[in-house]
């Protein structure tokens, strides 16, 4: 097994310590950071995704793989030059105002990061103003809004309206998700996409960027 | 008549272990309360507070347990519907579904009309004891109005004890005022428990702002709090079922302490609504046998260790339609809930899809499941008369019991179904080979067609509508 294949396998198996060690070894040996990412780390996650979709891998295994991946990314990311970092892959995400639930949102964050996205996680109970400030600061192209409660999901519309009022609506694609959220609700509040789960969020975000 | 045993998963020693584990967590890790008033209450009573984390001592827990009632009366607008909480197996409406579903129109977002319809079904039902709450969340009204309009529909279409909604302080006060207007004189609520509210902790080990505002307002007005952590083992709680029961217990006891500090004697129902996680999706598993096993452990704590009235979430399923899976998962959950000693049950009236949906037809079918389970809970008559030695000897070897006077006197007390088909094959075939869901569809429509226009007198109705108008004007 080549070092890259080995690295991918460690990511797939969620072995964070081994990913860290091998990534460091490859970097020390003068390996190309982009190659370590694209031929090693992300390949591991590419094995995970279809297995998760097929119901063979469970969420805790996906999260362990994502955690292992980020251990490797932490080592190679600082070595990337400005040209390597695609600014357009930045996504702003948060649970909308009034809602403190974050299990689903955190899952989306991990899956997005494992897809190579630069995720700016604003946390929970995020005001429309904070979303707008973050879009401006990070020049983001994608915004993810999360809500668990039927009472707070209405703040998705408030947030989207505020983004529009600030003149940023055409600059970003807005994805919404959460237990009570549906496609028709997403249409009603003027979102660009409804994501039923974390994998759907990653795929939709990827599609929007292409 | 009653069953001679209960479903149990913990030994007496285990109950002590769970309690001691709870005290250790409350004392050393504490619970986060996202509300200034709650924090102040704890500080005033000597609890150590760091930022929003409250550390609760054994003394505070003991004191709260001493003032919380074991049973209490809940007054209905029509007193014949008043109930005692802490005995029997009371049924309350579902809480939380976003969708409504029926055979003809399929699944769709619920409206205020659907909300009113479910209230009518609850009022008409001989197995539903409490009304109100959120059996379906109406999508066609403004969020600022929703609480007023739901409460109005509940009061208009029912006269059983009503359950309100978790909301902010002002909205909660308005709900309570509306209930009081229908009960009679101002101040009536302070003397009588007329309404309840379901609140959930923000697992793990926290309480959200609206939840606390609701708990504090209900406690101040001496109304009932149904406190139910909804933990998913492996997601928002430990993967071990016992660990999740410990977390559930810890969150409940923390809430109990707050409520008893705000107003000692406030009735609080130890409600259990946790499930195992569905680890393929990191959501919760509604149809799992393990869900009720967690709650069985918690019910033992509530009943046998704390002597509080207990409620559970039973009758739930993950099925998307009224099919075989919906039937067996619902019955598994409901039966385990009753056998575990629950004195009240929620999510037992037509839920589908892990409580995302309420089905009109399943509501009717679940009524029968509840009747079945209640019958089981009664056990058998063990009197000398029931031993029936004299009758057996009288009939001897050749007679028939069918025409014996003892049969004639009692045969109608045997349980019979209200929706299931027990007839013979040819009758069933000649009647159109109908599925139970088709019969249920006809039945719910019939009930709705025969429901009274309103159960409010015109004066109270007018007063409520004026109250709503004023509240709306105040908002804008």
Automatic annotation (TrEMBL), chain A:
Alphabetized InterPro entries for the sequence: Cbl-bd_cap, Cobalamin-bd, Cobalamin-bd_sf, Met_Synthase/Corrinoid, Meth_synthase_dom
Residue ranges annotated for the B12-binding domain, each copy included: 88-210
Entries under Pfam families matching the protein: B12-binding (PF02310), B12-binding_2 (PF02607)
Signal peptide feature range: none
Keyword match Metal-binding: yes
Gene Ontology BP terms: homocysteine metabolic process; methylation; tetrahydrofolate metabolic process
Entry GO MF terms: cobalamin binding; metal ion binding; methionine synthase activity
Residues covered by the B12-binding N-terminal domain: 1-88
Protein name, as recorded: 5-methyltetrahydrofolate--homocysteine methyltransferase
Source species of the chain: Desulfosporosinus lacus DSM 15449
TrEMBL record, chain B:
Keyword line: Methyltransferase, Transferase
Any one Gene Ontology molecular-function term assigned to this protein's record: methyltransferase activity
Family per similarity comment: Belongs to the trimethylamine methyltransferase family.
Transmembrane portions of the chain: none
BP GO annotations: methanogenesis; methylation
One Pfam family recorded for the sequence: MTTB
Native source species: Desulfosporosinus lacus DSM 15449
InterPro entries in the record: MttB-like_sf, MTTB_MeTrfase
EC number: 2.1.1.-
The protein's name: Methyltransferase
């Amino acid at each position: 097994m080549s070092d890259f294949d080995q690295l991918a396998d460690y990511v797939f198996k969620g072995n964070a310590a081994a990913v860290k060690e091998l990534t460091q070894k490859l970097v020390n040996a003068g390996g190309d950071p982009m190659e370590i990412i694209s031929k090693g780390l992300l390949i591991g996650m590419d094995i995970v995704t279809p297995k998760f979709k097929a119901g063979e891998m469970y969420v805790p295994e996906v999260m362990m793989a994502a955690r292992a991946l980020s251990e490797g990314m932490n080592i190679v990311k600082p070595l990337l030059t400005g040209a390597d970092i695609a600014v357009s892959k930045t996504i702003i995400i948060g649970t909308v105002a009034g809602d403190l639930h974050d299990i689903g949102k955190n899952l989306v964050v991990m899956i997005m990061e494992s897809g190579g996205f630069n995720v700016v996680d604003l946390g929970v109970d995020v005001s429309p103003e904070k979303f707008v400030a973050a879009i401006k600061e990070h020049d983001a192209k994608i915004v993810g809004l999360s809500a668990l409660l039927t009472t707070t999901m209405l703040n998705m519309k408030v947030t989207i309206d505020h983004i529009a009022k600030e003149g940023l609506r055409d600059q970003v694609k807005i994805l919404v998700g959460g237990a009570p959220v549906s496609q028709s609700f997403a249409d009603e509040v003027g979102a660009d996409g409804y994501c039923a789960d974390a994998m759907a969020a990653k795929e939709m975000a990827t599609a929007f960027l292409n | 008549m009653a069953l001679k045993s209960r479903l149990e998963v913990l030994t007496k020693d285990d109950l002590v272990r769970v309690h001691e584990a709870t005290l250790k967590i409350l004392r050393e890790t504490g619970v986060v309360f996202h509300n200034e008033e709650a924090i102040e209450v704890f500080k005033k009573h000597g609890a150590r507070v760091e930022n929003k984390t409250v550390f609760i001592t054994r003394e505070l827990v003991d004191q709260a347990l001493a003032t919380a009632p074991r049973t209490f009366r809940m007054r209905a607008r029509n007193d014949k519907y008043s109930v005692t909480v802490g005995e029997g197996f009371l049924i309350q409406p579902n809480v939380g579904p976003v969708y409504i579903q029926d055979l003809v129109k399929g699944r769709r977002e619920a409206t205020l009309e659907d909300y009113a319809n479910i209230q009518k079904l609850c009022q008409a039902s001989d197995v539903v004891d409490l009304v109100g709450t959120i059996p379906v969340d109406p999508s066609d009204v403004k969020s600022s109005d929703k609480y007023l309009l739901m409460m109005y529909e509940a009061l208009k279409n029912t006269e059983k004890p009503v359950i309100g909604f978790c909301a902010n302080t002002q909205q909660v006060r308005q709900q309570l005022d509306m209930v009081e207007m229908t009960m009679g004189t101002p101040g009536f609520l302070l003397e009588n428990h007329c309404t309840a509210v379901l609140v959930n902790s923000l697992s793990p080990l926290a309480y959200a702002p609206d939840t606390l505002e609701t708990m504090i307002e209900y406690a101040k007005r001496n109304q009932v709090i149904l406190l139910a952590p909804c933990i998913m083992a492996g997601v928002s709680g430990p993967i071990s079922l016992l660990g999740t029961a410990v977390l559930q217990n810890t969150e409940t006891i923390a809430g109990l302490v707050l409520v008893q500090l705000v107003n000692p004697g406030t009735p609080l129902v130890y409600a259990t609504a946790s499930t195992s996680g569905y680890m393929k999706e990191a959501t919760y598993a509604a149809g799992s046998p393990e869900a009720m096993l967690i709650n069985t452990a918690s019910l033992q704590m509530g009943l046998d260790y704390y002597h509080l009235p207990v409620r559970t979430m039973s009758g739930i399923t993950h099925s998307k339609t009224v099919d075989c899976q919906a039937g067996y998962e619902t019955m598994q959950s409901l039966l385990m809930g009753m056998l575990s000693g629950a004195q009240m049950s929620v999510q037992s009236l037509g839920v589908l899809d892990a409580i995302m949906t309420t089905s009109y037809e399943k509501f009717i079918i679940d009524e029968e499941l509840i009747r079945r389970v209640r019958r089981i809970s009664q056990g058998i008559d063990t009197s000398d008369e029931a031993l029936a030695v004299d009758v057996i000897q009288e009939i001897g070897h050749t007679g028939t019991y069918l025409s014996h006077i003892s049969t004639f006197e009692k045969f109608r007390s045997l349980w019979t179904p209200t929706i299931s088909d027990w007839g013979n094959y040819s009758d069933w075939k000649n009647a159109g080979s109908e599925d139970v869901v088709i019969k249920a569809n006809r039945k719910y429509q019939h009930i709705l067609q025969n429901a009274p226009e309103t159960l409010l007198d015109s004066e109270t109705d007018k007063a409520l509508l004026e109250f709503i108008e004023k509240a709306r004007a105040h908002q804008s």
